[in-house]
Amino acid sequence: MKPDYKNWMPKGMVFGFLAATGVALLMSLVFGMAGFIGKILLVIGIFLAIITIWMFLMYRAFSYNGSRQMSKQIIEGVSSYVKIPDGGKGLDVGCGSGALTIACAKKNPHAQMVGIDRWGKEYASFSKTLCESNAKAEGATNVSFDQGDATKLEFEEETFDAVTSNYVYHNIPSRDRQAILLETLRTLKKGGTFAIHDIMSKSKYGDMQSFAQKLKDMGYEDVKLIDTTSGMFMSKFEATWMGLSGSTILMGRK
Fold first, then answer.
1. How would CATH label the architecture of 70-253?
2. Of 16, 44, 145, 213, which has the most beta carbons under 10 Å away?
3. Does the pLDDT at position 200 exceed 90?
4. pLDDT tens across 30-52, in order?
């Protein structure tokens, strides 16, 4: 039995745009490309074709079975920063298919990992059942999964020895994603560590340098912002065409 971590670019979405492209181009032929409607449909078809090609390239890059395996590289990289003492407990916010939760659990075999997610319809192929199946396939028995909301975690303050997340918060509609970070860090024990990877561009997160200083002023230690687009997980070129510019790990200790 092998784990199935799916793909960050859902296959159904790729095929959906491919089908839409085909319909638009076919209808442009039906109406005649010389006519106004035909020309509009042709433009729409070409536009959809470009998006479809981009999605296909993203799917190939993120595939766990492909040659690039960017998703796997990122998961292994982020999990390497998650350190949990024996007998401790860690939290992965927005666990998706369970990849990061399980990777952290395997790297900290004498601790427990909890993965939470809302498992929304936009990622319908991800579920609690899938996470549990992947944990079983990986032989990770020190892990559990439950439904949760990143903006309002149902955990007391200072519950976990480590908290982590990967490419989650930028997907949450919010004017203040720094507040979501603070909600996650609220659950961290004194002395606990955090490693949160996301697209922390100014347009999505505001001034993260100021936020890192704010954490230091609050008593957090070893706070760092690590750019992951300069060869760590991807090149600048990859980050640009994939829409991942600004990818950064926020890490430190409470």
1. 3-Layer(aba) Sandwich (3.40)
2. 145
3. yes
4. 988 788 999 999 999 999 999 99
